[in-house]
């Protein structure tokens, strides 16, 4: 299918779900790109994966009650994040152990809940891997509003979040509420994951949060530039992924992730300052100097 045919399908009223899927994918990728910058900066990939598990029971409950998946997932993720924050205050257990206990338990609870729904297998597959045809109009609006609030929140707290990410002790000495800022970031990560689940699925959503931001990190040392590039890479992966999945009849979520990964590999190899090609060229130059 040519890009022209794809645009024609997007404008076809009988294929309205395709336009909604692309719109949600683009909005989700932009939001995840912005939030993912802080996740990559702080080395929070494990927490991002854990949050993706934590939202699952909320999604399952919302599905059974025919409510908003975004709202249900957000509530479940926030509750679990608060439990982790509270139990982590007991220094007998490290934070990663508490995260492993609660977030995996939340995912297990979600599986038990969704098993009570009619058509259990199909419903579970949609949750885990996304569904391009299952996005209602109300969720498009919810994703747009939630995404706008998240981006506004990140911009508003940008200085504080960066300070905590770079030097927690200095942040405490400066009087910043480090615990509160950690909790706010957890909530932001939770909501970013929830708004992305319907298009890309619960299992693959972490890639949308991490890969575009990691790609941007390969290309720049400036945080502001990184925060601008990451949403662009995410949007590119969403656009090309939806196009390829529709043209070749491939799973949407998996295709978006593979496109994002391909862009990362290109950046990893060709990055002007930190890429493999640059490193090999520099090594070859040093060897030539030694031989000379």
UniProtKB/TrEMBL annotation:
CDD domains: TM_ABC_iron-siderophores_like
Membrane topology: Multi-pass membrane protein
Keyword check for Heme: no
Membrane-spanning residues: 15-36, 43-63, 69-87, 99-120, 140-157, 178-197, 203-220, 227-246, 252-271
Domain of life of the native organism: Bacteria
Membrane is among the record's keywords: yes
InterPro entries attached to this UniProt entry: ABC_BtuC-like, ABC_TroCD, Anch_rpt-typ_ABC_trnsprt_perm
Compartments where found: Cell membrane; Membrane
Gene Ontology annotations of biological process type: cellular response to iron ion; response to zinc ion; transmembrane transport
Keywords: Membrane, Transmembrane, Transmembrane helix, Transport
Gene Ontology cellular-component annotations: ATP-binding cassette (ABC) transporter complex
Family matches, as PANTHER family: ABC-TRANSPORTER METAL-BINDING PROTEIN (PTHR30477), IRON TRANSPORT SYSTEM MEMBRANE PROTEIN HI_0360-RELATED (PTHR30477:SF13)
Family: Belongs to the ABC-3 integral membrane protein family.
Listed name of the protein: Anchored repeat-type ABC transporter permease subunit
Organism for this UniProt entry: Cellulomonas triticagri
